[in-house]
Amino acid sequence: MNLRRQGKSAVYERCFQRQDGEKLWTIISAKPTTDSEGRHNGSFGMISDITARKRAEEALRESQTRFEHLFDNMADGVAMYQAVDDGTDFVFVDLNRAGQSLSKISREAVVGKRITAAFPAVIEMGIVEQKSGVRR
């Protein structure tokens, strides 16, 4: 059903193709207008070119895909983690395939968990102190 005929605003993206074959991405905003008696008497609209944004989004998706492929298929074990509690502990963000194989633990078993909970020995080994610079 046509939103404009219902008296509602609409915002949507639309892709056009130029004569040279290049894509032109737009965002279209349309709002119905009414007269003093509340009757629909037209529409107000804006069209914005968002082609550069769409290209940047696509480039980011491609870069992310390349990174994920490289990360998951490299021969070295790699764990990504984020500092928590002012850097006195770390939470696993990701673990690649080689890391899973070397540590004999699945990605699902560690992602979202504190490194000290997943591998309590890291405290005794001083790894958390080394990474955080904070003595326990």
Principal-axis shape equals elongated
Strand order of the largest sheet: 1-2-3
Pick out the low-confidence regions: none
Briefly note the structural class of the backbone. alpha+beta
The ordered H/E elements are: EEEHEEHHHHH
Rg from alpha-carbon coordinates: 26 Å
- Give the N-terminus to C-terminus distance in angstroms: 65 Å
Tally of extended strands? Answer: 5
Helix proportion of residues, in percent? 25-40%
Proportion in β-strands: 25-35%
Topology, please?
Blueprint: E1 10-17, E2 23-34, E3 40-49, H1 51-73, E4 79-84, E5 89-95, H2 97-103, H3 107-110, H4 115-118, H5 121-125, H6 127-132
Structure description:
The protein is an alpha+beta fold and 136 residues long. It has six helices and five strands; from the N terminus they run E-E-E-H-E-E-H-H-H-H-H. The protein has helices spanning 51-73, 97-103, 107-110, 115-118, 121-125, 127-132; strands at 10-17, 23-34, 40-49, 79-84, 89-95. A three-stranded antiparallel beta sheet has the order 1-2-3, covered by helices on one side. Strands 4-5 form a two-stranded antiparallel sheet. Strand 2 and strand 3 form a beta hairpin. The model has no long low-confidence stretch (mean pLDDT 86).
